[in-house]
Amino acid sequence: MLTQTLRRLERNGMIERTVLPTRPVGVEYSLTPLGESLRQPFLALYVWTVEHSDEIQSAQRAYDRRADERVRSGVD
Predict the structure, then answer these.
(1) Confidence band for 42, pLDDT divided at 50, 70 and 90
(2) Which residues pair with 18 in a beta bridge?
(3) Mapping DSSP to helix (H, G, I), strand (E, B) and coil, where does residue 18 land?
(4) Which of 9, 31, 46, 70 is the most core-located residue (most Cβ within 10 A)?
(5) How, if at all, do strands 26-31 and 15-20 pair?
């Protein structure tokens, strides 16, 4: 899964993959300028997530309770 994600990011121009001349062969990934341009939007999303973590966890618990009730009642 990680390999697929890295390949997708490389294909989309977000990261650059460099094969290192070591034994065993190693690889290094770095952000491209396009990938770097996402730093601020991702930081904003991270800050928002931290600020709303209590609400998110509460919504997750409520969802899980409803899902459990559906399974127990045979509705799901």
Answers:
(1) very high
(2) 28
(3) strand
(4) 9
(5) antiparallel
